[in-house]
Amino acid sequence: MSKNKIAITLGIVCMILTIAIVIQINTIKGTNETVSQTLAEDELRDEVLRMKERYDNAYSSLENAEKELAQVREQATQNDDSSAEKEAEIKLNNNLLGLTDLEGQGVEITLQDDPNATVDSISVLDQISNHLVHDSDIRMIVNELKNAGAEAISINGQRVVSTTSIICIGNVIKVNDSRVSSPFVIKAIGFPERLMTALDRPGGFLEELNSYGIVTSIKKSNKVEIPKYSGVISAKYMRTQN
Amino acid sequence: MMLFIAILIGCIVGALIGVNIPMIPYTYSGYLAIAIIAALDSVFGAISSSLQKKFDMKIFISGFFVNAILAMALTYLGQKLNVDIHLAAVVVFVGRMFNNLGTIRRYYVEKITDRKIIAKAEATIKESKKQ
Questions:
Q1: Ranges of each domain in chain B
Q2: pLDDT, tens digit, for every residue of B3-20?
């Protein structure tokens, strides 16, 4: 092996090596932006967590204040019949408005997207969308429940109040400005047998959903717990008619 | 000396070509990086073995490719297993690089010391001849 040959081979190898190094440096330089992007993303995530903590703190202090207010009101109306009546009315109105946690007899409905449906498993004539729970399905069930005399309804912990909307946003459903997704747990307080029959009857809505592969279950319960509405009820434009 | 001139020329030409080549997708940059380390190790190995007059072209070329491919395969496996196996390859290659660098360094240090000793001896011989 002559020395020249060795030198030429090493020279060629070094050339390949430098080409690779320069390409690598260029590539990394081009992706520096992505790195800083993820850094910014992390910071944003931190910020969101901090904000959420502050929100939770504020929310819990609001809850305490409300409890205190209720106590004070009760004490103030203890010895006066007419104001005790008013107090009872306020309580009832708050319950109806969705401002209090409720419990009572009712039903619990669970809806879950078809677990066996994938893009490959369904036939050509079918659509994956048929195997998912949609906002319209939720609206239908809420409507049926109300029709059957439900007094209070919640969807995945979101109380249904007079201003509640149930809207599809992408792959989740928006209820009361918060996102809920499968599995959906719909709770309703009312006469359990009626609520049950409204949905569970042969040819009823749950059976229809079942036929698409959506997993549904409904059960009666003596103690359904429904949380209060966590949003703000706006009354900016409405006025009492006179 | 010839060796280092060739390496230098190779590096300059490579840098000139490399600047004009488009970059590769970021996903593969991990593989390229490990291949660069493997190639760098091969180059150091080649220099040290050629200084020791043990250089074999077949061993060099096969080592160059097999090392690089094995390192890339390890990186791929590591990504699949979510273990940073490529770190092991980096450690091994860099360790070998330092070993080879030590051999090269020792070779030149010894050469210079030898020269000095020879020069000293020659000077002593000359002086003794004058006397």
A1: 28-126
A2: 788 888 888 888 888 787
Q: Confidence class of residue A31 from pLDDT cuts 50, 70 and 90?
A: low
Does residue A94 lie in a domain region? no
Asked if A228 and A101 count as a contact pair (C-beta separation under 8 A), the reply is: yes
Tell me how far apart the alpha carbons of residues B21 and B13 are, in angstroms, rounded to a whole number: 13
Q: How far is CA A62 from CA A65, A66, A72, A156, B101, in A?
A: 5, 6, 15, 22, 70
In B18-77, the residues whose Cβ lies within 8 Å of chain A are 18-19, 21, 23-26, 29, 32-33, 35-36, 39-40, 42-43, 46-47, 50, 55-57, 60-61, 64
| C-alpha to C-alpha distance for A213 and A115, rounded to whole angstroms | 8
User: In this complex, which of B12, B36, B64 lies closest to A24 when CB atoms are compared?
Assistant: B36
- What's the domain count of chain A? 2
Question: Do A33 and A126 lie in a common domain?
Answer: no
Question: Cβ–Cβ of B24/A23 closer than 8 Å?
Answer: yes
Least CB–CB distance from A7: residue in B3, B35, B40: B3
Range of the domain at A29: 1-76
| A1 pLDDT more than 60 | no
B6 to chain A, any CB pair closer than 8 A? The answer is: yes
Q: Do A60 and A3 lie in a common domain?
A: yes
The model's pTM:
0.50
